[in-house]
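worker-3 :: picked SDR family oxidoreductase
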Amino acid sequence: MPTALVTGATAGLGSAFARHLAARGYDLVLVARSETDLKERAEDLREQGVDVEIIPADLTSDEGCGAVTDRLRAEPAVDLLVNNAGIGYERPFLATGIAAEERLLDLNVRAVLRLTDAALTAMTERRAGAILNVASVAGLGPAWLSSTYPASKAWIIAFTESLASSHQVTSAGVRMTALLPGYTRTEFHQRAGIPTSFPPPWLWLSADDVVRTALKDLEKGTVVSIPSLRYKIAAWGLRHLPRRLARTVAWDISKPAH
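worker-3 :: tokens ->
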């Protein structure tokens, strides 16, 4: 059976990825900070007849990243890496504090960099494997949400697109996809302190739909996966409208009225 490693695996999109991958017959390596939550999630998933390892790790730390990169280089081989763990803040940049912003970059950027490096090293040697990096439509333009968050997601998009097109990856048969969801009903917004009363209901996506689209696009070799027509249209606008207009539209769409 193939093996998938999922970060941020006990809640939100990470939990949905674990569930869908188990249904597809993947053995799992689950990564999250809480050992208690990991054990509970693993017990549920084992009922689907798959093997589940857990790695309690704080990916903002060298020790936490090291534990996961060690596993990515070990046997049994990891066939699919899902870099899902991430954080965001409701507060404006100057109100957040530099330590919190650095922690965001440690998780959203540095951990993705380190885990991708470890996974790609092993996958290119085996000439097989896939990596799915969770970014966001917010990475295509500015947002009311903490300015460091969309910047971190923009980095993931550019990083993934660059690697996916490189000779070292394509010649080894490794697939890479950046997932750009829009507003998705998960615990992310509550944890970040973002009101869920905004945006309007028709803009919200379900975690299951996002994961189904991502896995389908990964199988097809789609490098940038954008769930739902409404967010494909939004992404087109953010990429092709004049930047001044794109900034205005992105800010207005992402800013709650409060």
